Amino acid sequence: MIRKFQLAALVAAAFFLSTAAAAQKRDPSAWMHEIGPVAGIYGFFGAESGADAFYGLDYSHSYWNGLGFRTGFRYMLECCNVGDVVSVPLAFSWRSRLRTEPERLAGGVAGLSPYGFHDTPSAGTVLGAFLLNLFSRFEVYAGVTPGYVFGKSNIYRHEFRGGYVEEGVRLDRPFTLSVDAGIALSYRIWRFNLRLAPAVHYNLTDNYHLWSAEHSDADRIDRHSDKSIPWAASLDFGLLWLF
Questions:
Q1: For residue 101, what is the enclosing H or E element?
Q2: Does residue 215 lie within any of the structural domains?
Q3: Residue 129 CB partners (closer than 8 Å, separation 6+)
Q4: Consecutive 10-residue averages of pLDDT for the chain (243 residues)
Q5: What pLDDT is stored for residue 10 in this prediction?
Q6: Which long-range contacts link 12-20 to residues 24+ away (Cβ below 8 Å)?
Q7: pLDDT at residue 2 in the model
Q8: Full residue range of the structural domain in which residue 199 is found
Q9: Alpha carbon separation from 183 to 77, 78, 166, 220 (Å, rounded)
């Protein structure tokens, strides 16, 4: 069954890539600009709220040697249960040359080679290996992201042992600035790029703190914990127009 799946995947990819190649009206390597919508998830390590969704718009430009820049706009519906966030990523990038359709197909086949046609990996493993090696272009980027948090500290209070306890996320300041680094895999379909981009982030402005405090009365704090959560990770998906 796995062998049939592998063969079917190769035939489908060959048909798709040959159709896409025939649709080209000009040299794809001349397209130096990308613009389009993105969506993804963003979460701080250690935050109990988990990952939060964001949406936005991306624009990037590259030069003949692969160097370039990327920017855009992000809107996060909620971050750490504090409030919504707007931000503007600014990054320098380097991208590989655009691979031809035969090179992409060869890469997809190479992704299947560790399993062979006599092993029995799961269909999901085979499909994942094939698609990850079918990318049109590889990119690395690094930069900063300034932003603003529209919210305030989210600290709740409950009674405990004759006193009360405060717990939640403390927001130290609304302005944010993070340092970012990531990679991006692009899959070209005619004049569109499907992009998958994981990244890591470090919050320089130290905005978010996990806060807890135990009060024996209204005026005294007996014990407290104040833990910064500066590290975060994200994963975004984009559909970008090439021009």
A1: helix 101-112
A2: yes
A3: 111, 112, 114, 115
A4: 49 48 55 94 90 96 93 95 95 83 56 52 56 76 97 78 77 96 91 94 95 68 77 96 92
A5: 54
A6: 13/105, 13/108, 13/130, 13/134, 14/105, 17/101, 17/104, 17/105, 18/101, 20/101, 20/188, 20/189, 20/190
A7: 46
A8: 31-99+135-242
A9: 24, 24, 39, 49
What is the number of structural domains in the chain?
1
| pLDDT at res. 94 | 96
Task: Provide φ and ψ at 128, rounded to 5°.
Answer: -60, -45
Q: Is residue 106 part of a domain?
A: no
Is the CB of residue 93 less than 8 Å from the CB of residue 67?
Answer: yes
Residue 10, domain member (yes or no): no
Q: Report pLDDT for 162.
A: 65
Whole-angstrom distance, CA of residue 186 vs CA of residue 236: 12
**CATH number (domain holding residue 147):** 2.40.160.20
Q: Please give the DSSP secondary-structure letter assigned to residue 174.
A: S
